[in-house]
Amino acid sequence: MYPLLTFIAEENYILALLVFVIAAATDGLDGYLARVMDWQTELGKILDPIADKVLLIGTVLILWMNSYIPFFVMAVFVIRDFIIIMGAAFHMTVYETAAPNPNAFGKITTFVHIGYLAGIFVDIIFGLNLMSLMVDICVACVTLVSLFLYGLNWSKLTAQLHRE
User: Fold this and answer.
1) Neighbours of 128 (CB within 10 A)
2) What keywords appear on the UniProt entry (predicted)?
3) Is residue 100 a contact partner of residue 88, using CB atoms and an 8 Å limit?
4) 34, CA 20 to 30 Å: which among 48, 100, 123, 147?
5) How far, in Å, CA of 51 to CA of 110, rounded?
6) CA gap 62, 74 in Å, rounded
7) SS3 letters for 32-66?
């Protein structure tokens, strides 16, 4: 994680892209193997999403600080992840439930975030100007829809737990 942020801070975007892609790919592989090989643990269900959020939010924050990402995109990323972490912690503590399983749209959102950030790096490295305000708005909208769906799922779960 720190080498990625250091490479960005030093404007070594090729190495930053390489580290980012490797981190994202190995995280995906880790999750896939855990599910397929039945290596999942309760601790892993908690730590893996937090590690994802640290990777993505750390990258978003430093790219925003270097003016490569608009404030509203950074804010939506951070607010979504903060609310998801607090919501999960609330449910696990108050209702004594297991770590929540991510929904399909949450996984799609993570993939969109990874693609967006990789695209930012490619834009910086090659000066392609592929990223635009429209892309930023689309990514922010996907992120907000994901947050809404998590909230809807938690509301349903809360109602179900109150009925029991």
Assistant:
1) 10
2) Lipid biosynthesis, Lipid metabolism, Membrane, Phospholipid biosynthesis, Phospholipid metabolism, Transferase, Transmembrane, Transmembrane helix
3) yes
4) 147
5) 12
6) 10
7) HHHHHCCCCCHHHHHHHHHHHHHHHHHHHHHHHHC
**Sole residue written with tokens 């640290």:** 54
Contact 8, 63 (CB under 8 A): yes
* Of 34, 37, 63, the residue nearest 124 (C-alpha): 63
CATH class of 2-163: mainly alpha
Asked if 95 and 161 touch (Cβ cutoff 8 Å), the reply is yes
Predicted confidence at residue 96, as pLDDT, reads: 79
Break the chain into its structural domains and give their ranges.
Answer: 2-163
Lowest mean pLDDT segment, chosen from 8-12, 68-72, 140-144, 159-163: 159-163
Task: Tell me what pLDDT residue 149 has.
Answer: 94
Report the predicted TM-score, pTM, of the whole model to 2 decimal places: 0.91
Task: Residue 19: name the closest of 9, 49, 112 by CA.
Answer: 9
